[in-house]
Amino acid sequence: MGQNDTLVGRGESIPEAPQGPVVVCTRNDALDDVVASTPPNRRKDLVFIQNGMLQPWLDKKGLGDNTQVLVYFAVAKKGEAPVDGKTDLNPEGLTAAWGLHAEAVAERLRANGLSCSTPDKPDFVKAMLEKLVWISAYMLVGARHKATIGEVEGQYRSEVGSLIEELATGGAAELGVSLDDGYIERLHAYSRSVAHFPTAVKEFQWRNGWFFDLSKKAEAEGKSDPFPTHTAWLKEIGVV
């Protein structure tokens, strides 16, 4: 945080002042309450850093152009220093921000020793899909094998790689983008940087649920499932 930033606790309302970015550091299931507690004239200042596919929810709330941050750093537990997601393939870091307050947020992160780029919207959408694919694929394969992220990368690399490719291909078609070459290796490299973190399929509607909804839509239209392996493994572990 910057020296003059204001910290707003859980259940408190966003103040009218000071002006500037309002970084929303909460779980996805609390986002509706955060928006409701924000004065209408300040809602454009909300900055969302949550994992998952936020765009449909943002669009529904009239916040489709709000600042989003793809966070590639992690804090193991409260009070510990964050670990930047710099990798052997991307030593410049992978965290990215887009929107009205992107540069202001990036400056705060950089001031605290963390990397953050500010790509244009098309590149941000591609990066957003990559992050969604990473968390959906790695968490699902990890849940299947009760493995950490590092164990998935080391022991089930082929399995998670094929799922990444499946999700990325169908996701890119849905969003009308084309991912840059090397995305599978890029995501494996990030996994090595957070190898000790556990895995679990959670916040389903925001993560794996986005892909599963596309599968259900295809089925309803009499089309083949664009994510057959993903669907099968969700059923295998009893998530759907």
Task: Summarize the SSE layout with pairings.
Layout: E1 22-24, H1 31-36, E2 46-48, H2 55-60, E3 67-70, E4 73-74, E5 83-84, E6 96-98, H3 102-111, H4 121-145, H5 149-155, H6 157-175, H7 183-193, H8 208-220, H9 228-236
Parallel strand pairs: 1-2, 2-3
Antiparallel strand pairs: 3-6, 4-5
Give an overview in words.
This protein is α/β, with parallel strands linked by helices. The chain folds into two domains: 22-119, Rossmann fold, CATH 3.40.50; 122-236, Orthogonal Bundle (N-(1-d-carboxylethyl)-l-norvaline Dehydrogenase, domain 2), CATH 1.10.1040.10. It is built from nine helices and six strands, in the order E-H-E-H-E-E-E-E-H-H-H-H-H-H-H. The strands form two sheets. The protein has a four-stranded mixed beta sheet with strand order 1-2-3-6, sandwiched between helices. The protein has a two-stranded antiparallel sheet with strand order 4-5. A hairpin with an 8-residue loop joins strand 4 and strand 5. Helix 4 (121-145) packs across helix 5 and helix 4 (121-145) runs parallel beside helix 9. The longest helix has 25 residues, at 121-145. The termini are far apart.
Fraction in beta strands: 5-15%
Shape: globular
Major β-sheet profile: 4 strands, mixed
Specify Rg, calculated over alpha carbons. 18 Å
Structural class: alpha/beta
Average residue pLDDT: 94
The side-by-side strand order for the widest beta sheet comes to: 1-2-3-6
Tally of individual domains: 2
Number of helices: 9
Q: Provide the CATH superfamily of the largest domain.
A: N-(1-d-carboxylethyl)-l-norvaline Dehydrogenase, domain 2
Order of SSEs: EHEHEEEEHHHHHHH
Name of the CATH architecture of the largest domain: Orthogonal Bundle
Report the span from N to C terminus.
39 Å
- Low-confidence region ranges: none
State the CATH class of the largest domain: Mainly Alpha
- And the CATH topology of the largest domain? N-(1-d-carboxylethyl)-l-norvaline Dehydrogenase, domain 2
Question: How many distinct beta strands?
Answer: 6
Approximate helicity band: 40-55%
